[in-house]
TrEMBL record:
Name of this chain's protein: NH(3)-dependent NAD(+) synthetase
HAMAP family reported in the protein's UniProt record: NadE_ammonia_dep (MF_00193)
Role played: Catalyzes the ATP-dependent amidation of deamido-NAD to form NAD. Uses ammonia as a nitrogen source.
Protein residues bound to deamido-NAD(+): R126, K159, D166, H251, K252
Assembly description: Homodimer.
Originating species: Mycoplasmopsis canis
GN (gene name): nadE
UniProt-annotated binding residues for ATP: G45, I46, S47, G48, G49, I50, D51, S52, T146, K175, S197
Residue runs in coiled coils: none
Binding-site residues, Mg(2+): D51, E151
E.C. no: 6.3.1.5
GO-annotated cellular components: cytoplasm
Length: 263
């Protein structure tokens, strides 16, 4: 981890000096990768959640005139998400582009006639990925992913969906660190304090779906090399759930598997 988080037993404290230093590191990373790719800027899918808001803020800080935020509703968005997106626009004096993918999604869903709820839901982030890459290629921009360290570790992202990106600027930050840094970068408080949701279906929240809290997962990641401390402060069932999700989603973090060369 980035060492922004420090724990006294299970209570977490964040080091602002380290956090600001890490912000600078991310900014240099973005600029360096943009130059190496000979790209003109960045594109970010905006959901109204904290991860996409922070990634947008980071990109905007290094490419203020060449960062494109894209809102991609599918069969509507909640009033709160729309309100939070507007607040983000106001804070950064920007206007996002909205591309409604409802008709496309409904057509694919009808033609496929898939019954599995998660399979249907995962069409949404894959459509958004396709949209972002089309616009990125049109503008010679890089697609920025919004997965944080928690999501990467347990594979809480859609393969070839929100997991499809050119760069992952916040993939070493836990959820708590994302919130802390978002506070430093003018992300609206309403976004920082809202319940995390992947927006896969109505009323869905990350923590309800996962069966444990981000606070627990943050603690696990920051103490992963100290099993005795994990056992002392985390429920054994929570540890098992985290480790099981990590194990079964390894394929999401690996490169595509191939057959070995013929000898």
């Amino acid at each position: 981890m980035s060492k922004i988080s420090n724990y006294d037993q299970k209570e977490v404290f964040y080091d602002e000096i380290v956090a600001r230093s890490y912000i600078n590191k991310i900014q240099k990373f973005l600029v360096s990768r943009m130059k190496k790719a000979n790209a003109n800027g960045f594109i970010v899918g905006i959901s109204g959640g904290i991860d996409s808001s922070l990634v947008y803020a980071l990109a905007k800080s290094v490419a203020p005139k060449n960062t494109l935020g894209i809102v991609m509703p599918i069969n509507g968005m909640t009033d709160s998400d729309l309100k939070h997106i507007e607040e983000l626009e106001n804070n950064f004096e920007d206007k996002f582009r909205t591309i409604d993918l409802s008709e496309t999604f409904n057509s694919i869903k009808k033609n496929l006639q898939v019954q599995n709820k998660l399979a249907i839901s995962n069409i949404k982030p894959r459509l958004r990925m396709t949209t972002l890459y089309a616009l990125a290629q049109e503008n010679n921009y890089l697609v920025l992913g919004t997965d944080n360290a928690d999501e990467v570790f347990i594979g809480y992202f859609t393969k070839f969906g929100d997991g499809g990106a050119d760069l992952l600027p916040i993939s070493k930050l836990t959820k708590g660190e994302v919130k802390f840094i978002a506070n430093l970068l003018n992300v609206p408080k309403s976004i920082i304090n809202k319940k995390p949701s992947a927006g896969l279906w109505e009323g869905q929240t990350d923590e309800d779906e996962l069966g444990f809290t981000y606070n627990d997962l943050d603690f696990y990641l920051n103490n992963i090399d100290n099993p005795s401390k994990l056992k002392k402060y985390l429920n054994s069932e929570v540890i098992e759930k985290i480790e099981f999700k990590h194990k079964i989603t390894q394929h999401k973090r690996d490169k595509i598997y191939t057959v070995k060369n013929i000898k």
